[in-house]
Every structure is written in C-alpha cells, then in structure tokens.
Amino acid sequence: MNRITCGVLGALLLCGGLGQAIAEEMAGTPPPPKVLAVFREFLKPGKGGSSHEKAESAFVQAFSRAKWPTHYLTATSVTGKPRALFLVGYDSFEAWEKDNLATQKNAALSAALDRASLADGELLSETDGSMLVYDEEGSLRGPVDIPHMRYFEIYLYRVRPGHGHEWDELVKLVKSAYEKIPDTHWAMYHAAYGQEGSTYVVFVPLKSAAEIDKGFEQDKQFGEALGADGLKKLSELESSSVEFSQRNLFQFSPSMSYPPDAWVKADPEFWKPKAAKPAAKAEEKPAAKQ
Questions:
Q1: Which residues are paired to 244 by β-bridges?
Q2: Which residues, at least 6 apart from 176, have a Cβ–Cβ distance to it below 8 Å?
Q3: Which end of the chain has the smaller Cβ count within 10 Å, N or C?
C-alpha cells in the first residue's frame, strides 16, 4: 500500500451527520489534521476479509518494530466497491514530506515495506490516492473523540466549474441549520491533489450504527431549522453548484491500522485485537504506505 506519500479519498457532508460527543465533552480534543493523506486499495473478488488483514498486518508490524512516529487509520467499505481507505494526518505538507524522506532513509523499514507491498499487491485490482486540506470554516464541531468512534460516513461533492460562490453559500446555509442541532458534527476537506475539478470531502465519525438511525430522525429538525424558504434556496444552490455527489459508509479496521498509543490506551479492547498472521513473505507496510 504505498500509502502515505499518496492521499485521501473522502467526501463532503451536506446532509448532516450525528456525532456521539457533545461539545463540552470535546474540550481539549485535538482538531482534525490540517493535511490528510489517504490511499485507496480496491480488492479483487474474494481477496478481502482475513486475506487482506494478514497482508496489512505486515505493514503494521514493520512500523511497530521501527517505532515509527507517524500513525494511520484504516477503514473498510460497507457500501460501494470492496476497498480500504488508509488515512494519515499531518500538520502541513512539509511534515508530510519529512515523514516520507525519513522513511526512504530508513533502509530496514523501506525494505520491509517493499516486501509487504509485493504480497499486498497480489490482492488488489486498483489503487489511487489523494491529499486533502482541512476546511475549518466549512466544518462543524470538528474535534471528535475518534478513539471511541467505529464508522465514517463519507461524502464526496464535485463543484461545477465557475460555481464556487454558490457552493460556499450552500455550505453556509447547511451549517447554519445544523448549528441549531447540538449532536451534529463533521470535518470538511478540500481536495488539493488526486481528485477531478473542485472536490470537497466530509467525514462524519459515528460511534455506532444507531447514530445513522438517529440521523434520519433529525431530518425533520433540519427542515424546521431552514424553513420553507431555506429549503427552496438549498435546492436551488445544490442544483446550480453540485456536479456530482456520492455517499458511502466505512467501518474502522483496528487490525489494519497503526494507531497512536493514546488511542490504544483510550480503548485497548478495540485497538489491540488479536494480531493477524502476516501473509507468506510479507513481513511488513508505509509512512503510512509507500
């Protein structure tokens, strides 16, 4: 998975997502990373599940042995094509570059990642990557207790060329309505590299599937917050500014993630499951993958 030199695929939220944590509980919680690198691996038929977990465990072990300071989160698809997303956060593009250069200079780690990539590649039909930049203004209550989350709702919106102003209006309108609904939150990103045109991504962390049910229940609250005129304006702005949209559900995969120690300490039963046995001849994976 030569992953961390690559980037992220995500999506942007316009429908609102439910978060388990309330604002006051989030005091002191780190905000979403400023730069998010994500790499996608699309799996061949029948190559998911334990087969992919075993191959990915080689990357996790390689980073663990190297005591690598950069960590990554892996989420696998519940909807859409079978695929895994590997997400790595950085404070800046400079920090991303330093991480990749350090990986290249570490001969033992680089060799282990190369071996792991060969084994992993046998399971894959396609890969790609993107890099996203955090849009704080477009996000709502971005800091979230990720160690205790289990899913991401991920939305992708591609804005029509020349219609960025309507898009900005649309985001402000949606955010203003959801600000009145305490339990909603999301992190919005703008694709800097790896996506067509002007693409926005929103990640909605969920603690359980019950929050999906609750989200549908809050559609009425959203409509009431906007009012008839607001809903009409929303429809007009979406029609004029959105060229393409997509929504998918992903679940966290602790066995394929390389989580920070703080996450493991916060929820050890989830983040430290029984390790999968590495695939044959695959001893190890990236900065987060290279």
A1: 158
A2: 225
A3: C
Written as one string, the DSSP assignment of 201-226 is EEEEEESSTHHHHHHHHTHHHHHHHH
DSSP 267: -
What is the amino acid identity at position 158? R
Interval 84-121: pLDDT, tens: 999 999 999 999 999 999 999 999 999 999 999 999 99
The residue type found at 85 is: L
Amino acid in position 286: P
State which of 12-26, 146-160, 203-217 shows the largest mean pLDDT.
Answer: 146-160
What are the phi and psi torsion angles at 88 (to 5°)? -130, 130
* Beta strand extents in 147-241 (DSSP E only): 151-159, 186-193, 198-206
Return the half-sphere exposure (C-beta side, CA atoms, 13 A cut-off) of residue 157: 25
**pTM, full prediction:** 0.84
Report whether 131 contacts 4 (CB < 8 A): no
Helix H or strand E segment including 48: none
Helices first, then strands: H and E counts in the chain: 8, 8
Q: What is the pLDDT of residues 55-87, one digit of tens each?
A: 999 999 999 999 999 999 999 999 999 999 999
Q: What 8-state DSSP symbol labels residue 4?
A: B
How does pLDDT run across 211-260, given as a tens digit for each residue? 998 888 778 889 999 999 999 999 999 999 999 999 999 999 999 999 99
Return phi, psi of residue 64, to 5°. Answer: -65, -45
Token digits of residue 174: 């949606």
13: Cβ contacts below 8 Å, ≥ 6 apart:
153, 155, 186, 188, 202, 203, 204
